[in-house]
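Marked as duplicate of an earlier ticket. Keeping the data here for the record.
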Amino acid sequence: KPTPKIERICKAQGWTLINPSAVLANNIEEKISQVTWLENLTRFLPQHSILACKDVAWNFEPFVLQFNRAHTGNGTMLITSKEQLRGVQETFPERPVRTSAFISGPMFTSNNIVTPNTILTGNISYQITGMAPFTDNPFATVGNDWHIPQTILPYDAQSACKEIAYAVGKKLQQDGWRGAFGIDLIHEQSTGKMYLIEINARQPASVTFESQLQSRARSKTGANALTTAEAHTAALLDIDIAKATLVPITNGAQVIVRNGRVHADNMDMLITALTKRQLTTIPYPNTKPGTDLLRIQSTASFMDAHQRWSALGNDIADTIITSV
């Protein structure tokens, strides 16, 4: 992700940056400025308000409260009582917050590409969110599954995903964005409506594995299309890909174990057990609580339904539990 600090260092060293500006990225990603930036595209958001935390009223219904900066669920809270709200207000009375109607349903991610003359809308993956034993935070995203959207997401909802991705891409294009961006969406179970809940103005973390799955799929089908990473790079280098498409994928999943969920002394045993199940494991040297410790990947699905593991997903979860 571009940051002002990286931009300053590169300028001082005389290095050329090909990423869009950090100011633009932050303006798009941060929860307060994002609403203004979206302009008429706020129609895709759940009902929302922006006000000082002390001025938020309890209306006897659960709602989502977000501070300006939030990532993988941090900075986002589900407020379910007047007492809980009062506690947040006493701690951060003057801090601006965005409140949104609570939407119940599965969440999805789409990684897309912007160039000066085209928008490439990408595959839809299911967000594995708030699931034990990987997290206790109901808003924390711990993985992606590229198979299950085909079974739980109706065609009109998939079309709505594409519509929202394209509309956000056009707005980004107008503001000079180039390369990858991600959107997170939620499919309301009671109405079937699709809502935009987050914009990731950068190369989202899931692009790497998604592109590996795309490369594997392309080698099997001979499809004349680009992976998301290839298209991202081409867009940043101003290579014309107006006639290109992104490789479609129909399977694959990954999930992340974070520090604090597994005892470090049990990591070697855990990796061995997962490798025997034909799973790819990528360990990280991080030690800070909450940071990525182990990434688990497969060309198969981890999910059977919304919030329900498949047999393989259950096997992984059970293996994690025995390593705690």
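See parent ticket for discussion. The two ends are 32 Å apart (CA to CA).
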